[in-house]
Amino acid sequence: xxxxxxxxxxxxxxxxxxxxxxxxxxxxxxxxxxxxxxxxxxxxxxxxxxxxxxxxxxxxxxxxxxxxxxxxxxxxxxxxxxxxxxxxxxxxxxxxxxxxxxxxxxxxxxxxxxxxxxxxxxxxxxxxxxxxxxxxxxxxxxxxxxxxxxxxxxxxxxxxxxxxxxxxxxxxxxxxxxxxxxx
Length: 183
Known about the structure:
It is a single chain. By secondary structure, this protein is of the alpha/beta class. Helices cover 26% and strands 22% of the residues. It has helices at residues 22-33, 53-59, 90-97, 107-114, 163-174; strands at 38-42, 65-71, 77-82, 102-104, 134-139, 147-150, 157-162, 179-181. The strands form two sheets. The protein has a five-stranded mixed beta sheet with strand order 4-2-3-5-8.
């Protein structure tokens, strides 16, 4: 288990310390504009699912594994949300979505399309994908949970959001309806 420091306070609103990046604040503004309630904890940088174990315990939610992928031609991009404990098998996913072999997309695409950096990949980054270049893929097991856990476009905070708010409010608003996959 990772030894990241976690603020043990659970917040239900955006931070107002004046020290946050604009992209993080935009994520909170979007959630609040859609009347999506969330719980937030702040912590040291957490760039992996393993880093988030203490956060998961505090929030009572599993933090999603989020992978930013592309095809071999680097002209199709995907954000995959899956349970943290599942193993990603490129072959299985490629077959389900009818794509050539998938690999991890470079940070330059992540930043250009989603305004996020490695270790901070989040479904909330899709709000920055104005040209709709990224296709959202969600493992069906994610949708079985009442809540999802994700970062607000930066990996020094984590959020707990109702899964129904994600599917019924956020995704329709940002026009990124998911393709459900089974990994």
